[in-house]
Amino acid sequence: MKVRLKEIAEATGFSINTVSHALRDEPDISEATKRIIRETAEKIGYIPNIQASGIKSGKSRIISIILPDIKNPHFTIVFREIEHYFHNLGLTPFFMNTNETLKDELNAVRISIGQNVEGVIICPTQVNTECIELLARSHIPYVLIGRHFEGDSRSNFVVCDDENGGYIATRHLASLGHRFIAYVRVNGCISSDRERFMGYRRALEEAGIPFRDEQILNLSLAEDGNAVRIREYLAAHPECTAILSFNDILAYSIIYEIRRIGKSVPGDISVMGFDNICSDYTFPTQLSSVSVSKKHMAHTASEMLCRYIRGAGEHKPEQPNQIVLPTTLYLRETTAPVRTAGAD
């Protein structure tokens, strides 16, 4: 038999009205009381009727999380942190994967609007601004995470300092004596790709290393054909002694192909990633990488959306809440000084 609010009220000694407000996370109930009521509700097996409560209150109690690629551990870590944050508030995170395609992104946004979600956290594909314009017209609170649109004066966002990340990674590789440092590009529409490339170019210039177009290794976030592209690039550029990857997943693909052709990492080629997924996962090869503060970013975006939903601050186009988090270099076993001629 389904547990009702009455049973929770009897078990806790609070009124049915207090129990109802606590389970809806209303501000008139103290956090201590909410905790007691939630723990009791969970213990006796209370399952809220989300659809019914949504109709009654006009709120769905659902948060839509729209991310590009859940296969990438970076986004898995981000989603878990967002999920944990809203779960503790009694809100249900609803995840959708865009596969880095505009079609799937638009579909996810339309579903979110149709479900009358409380708010949206989205890492946009950035093919165009259609999705955020749709969210803005629908008056649904949203926060961009990980990527932002240049010149966007209305969107709330939380990103990392991608430009500095590309800079400190390239500067370190140059300090190890590397002169041909390849950079992996994936999509010029994506802000993180553009800004990391800007940091890469700045570090090369400071180190007195001329930039040439052949230093760019173009790969796909969808991973289609990447193995062939990597092998062809390595064959065409034997002078390459270091590679800065757009992200850690692609970095591991590069390491695999380097070893397949009989070369070593970092003996022959140093490889630097971006995302620092080794902070949460154990891999046979510990990758040097740039940290983008994944959990901090996810928590900050969640807090921002929550404040927006609760009306703690109005979403004013002329005063968007836009946060850039610092990046940090983590050195492990895939980077080393360049091997001098004749060295073993």
CATH architecture of the largest domain: 3-Layer(aba) Sandwich
Total discrete domains:
3
How many DSSP E strands?
12
The largest beta-sheet arranges its strands as: 2-1-3-4-5-11
The CATH topology of the largest domain corresponds to Rossmann fold
Distance, first to last CA: 74 Å
Beta content comes to 15-25%
Backbone structural class: alpha/beta
Radius of gyration: 24 Å
Walk me through this protein's architecture.
- The strands form 2 sheets. The chain has a 6-stranded parallel β-sheet with strand order 2-1-3-4-5-11, sandwiched between helices. A 6-stranded mixed β-sheet has the order 7-6-8-9-10-12, with helices on both faces.
- Helix 8 (162-175) runs parallel beside helix 9 (191-206).
- It contains 12 helices and 12 strands.
- The protein is an alpha/beta fold and 344 residues long.
- The chain starts with a helix and ends in a 14-residue tail after the last strand.
- The protein folds into 3 domains: 5-48, no CATH class; 60-160 and 293-325, Rossmann fold (3-Layer(aba) Sandwich); 162-292, 3-Layer(aba) Sandwich (Rossmann fold), CATH 3.40.50.2300.
- The mean pLDDT is 90.
- The chain has helices spanning 5-12, 16-23, 31-43, 50-57, 73-87, 102-114, 130-137, 162-175, 191-206, 226-236, 248-260, 294-310; strands at residues 62-67, 92-97, 119-122, 142-145, 156-160, 181-185, 216-218, 242-244, 270-275, 288-291, 322-325, 328-330.
- The longest helix is centred in the last third of the chain and has 17 residues, at 294-310.
